[in-house]
Structures are given as C-alpha cells and as structure tokens.
Amino acid sequence: MGNVLIIDDELDICFLLSKIIQKKGWEVDFENNLTNGIKKIKEKKYDFIFLDLNLPDGYGMNFITLIKNHQPDSKIILISAYDSDEERNTAQLKGADSFMGKPFSEVQVANILKPASA
C-alpha cells in the first residue's frame, strides 16, 4: 500500500495503531519523540503521518508546517486525548488533514486510510 509514520510518546498507542495499520497492508514506522520523527520524515516518504499533540520534546501542532515542507503530499493526522472542537479547528487551520481523538477505534483508523487504499 504505502508508508505510515506514527509519532507518539505512548508505546502502547504506537503498537496498537501499528497493528491496525499493518493489518490494512501498510508499512509502519514509529518514533516516540519529535526529534526522531523529524529525522525519519527527512529520510523517507510517508503517505500518512499520525502525530501526537503532546510530546516530550514539543507540541505536535507546531510542527505541521515543517512536516508539510518536507512531505507536502503526506496526510497529517493529529492524535490526542484532548479532543475538542477548538483543537480540531486549529489543527485544520495549520494544515492537518484529520484529527483523531484518543481512545480511537479500528474503524476510525480504517476510515482515514480508506481513500488512499481505494
């Protein structure tokens, strides 16, 4: 299918999301901080980037422009336990393609990937 990067400091989330995405036929990489995630983004093309809002070394929302500069065709999906209309609107204004609250379901993830899988 393609490549997906997950940047989230919660390893349980990385493993769960990886499992769901791999089941759909995608290759998955993950990193638990922005620094390593940005390195991956500079090294490899990704179709989707799942980006946590609150990471130990920064606020994910502030890195959307940087990510889009390196990977303009990648779809950025922000993920956060702090799911609010305000966060969703800000994410959209900054260039995120989607916002997924935690906890999430397999169906939500599949629906995000579905257009690219068709």
Task: Give an account of the 3D structure.
The protein has 118 residues and is an alpha/beta fold. The protein has one domain (3-117): Response regulator (Rossmann fold), CATH 3.40.50.2300. It has 5 helices and 7 strands. The chain has helices at 11-23, 34-43, 64-70, 85-94, 106-117, and strands at residues 3-7, 27-31, 48-52, 54-55, 58-59, 75-80, 98-101. The protein has a 5-stranded parallel β-sheet with strand order 2-1-3-6-7, sandwiched between helices. It has a two-stranded antiparallel sheet with strand order 4-5. The termini are close together. The mean pLDDT is 94.
How would you summarize what this structure contains?
This protein has 118 residues and is an alpha/beta fold. The chain is 44% helix and 25% strand.
Task: Please give the CATH architecture.
Answer: 3-Layer(aba) Sandwich
At the first level of CATH, the class is Alpha Beta
SSE order: EHEHEEEHEHEH
Strand order of the largest sheet: 2-1-3-6-7
Number of discrete helical segments: 5
- Helix content percent band: 40-55%
Strand content: 15-25%
